[in-house]
Amino acid sequence: MLPSIRRPRSLSGAEVFLTGAASGIGRATALLAAAEGARVHLTDLHAEPLETVAAEVRARGGAVGHVEPADVSDHAAVVALGGRLTAAYGAMDVVMNIAGISAWGTVRSLEHDHWRRLVDVNLMGPIHVIETLVPPMVDAGRGGSLVNVSSAAGLIGMPWHAAYSASKFGLRGVSEVLRFDLAKHGIAVSLVCPGGVATPLTETVVIAGVDTSTPRFRRLLGRFRGHAVTAEQAAEAILDGVRRRRYWVYTSADIRLVHLLQRLCPPAYALAMRGFGYAANRALPDVEAARRTEAS
Predict the structure, then answer these.
(1) Phi and psi at residue 291, to the nearest 5°
(2) Of the listed 89, 164, 269, 278, which one is catalytic?
(3) Is 170 helix (H, G, I), strand (E, B) or coil?
(4) Rounded Cα distance, 66 and 37, in Å
(5) Does domain 15-295 correspond to CATH entry 3.30.70.100?
(6) Domain limits, the chain
(7) Rg of the chain over CA atoms, in angstroms?
(8) Under DSSP, is residue 178 helix (H, G, I), strand (E, B) or coil?
(9) Whole-angstrom Cα distance, residue 290 to residue 182?
């Protein structure tokens, strides 16, 4: 039998921990959660913009608790941060794994360090947070929510995303198991699967073998940003998922539809993804061909 758990329709009074809080979806979610009455605890790799976001929350009348920069891929750093956080504020009500990095490329153009860094940050980072902060939530017996931000690339076979998808599909697998393992403790798991979101990450994405400063690529990026949702819209979807204790959380209708197509009509999904791959390879320079030319 589940413990007695308070499940408010808002985040008022909740202790909310967020990674990746210095920019993009993390920043927008922190501001929105604080506006709903949560006390937010923030971390990010970058100290200065993290402090800027904390100051912004306070300036808007929100409550800020623990603020500490950390590299989530560093297990010891996360354990130390979690110990200080829990000692000062107790168990969290909501833990949000939002921090992430991105790198795309073909099997030929990706380097080993791309694969390793993506797994270290996007998969092991959330695991470090989960193993540090979720056990205190279980022990507190109040229930709560765990939010893991995956990606559309954690659902479907997007072209040039093999390394990125390795990390995001991995996080999806962790979430799928914890969805059921943590239910007996009243802890809901939400798996967030964003599609295009206009964040600073789109300006810094690494595409192995592609010069992202060319006019051609900048035009493609402009088209992407024109169809992307804002970080604020993504944050609203995330908090709505937390309030409703939903597992699947989509930030845009297109990803919801393609995920439905994948499950209900696999042949149509396969045809669509082949077309997507063909279009992507035409839109970007043929890296494989360029490398063959260099080798000849």
Answers:
(1) -70, -35
(2) 164
(3) helix
(4) 16
(5) no
(6) 15-295
(7) 20
(8) helix
(9) 49
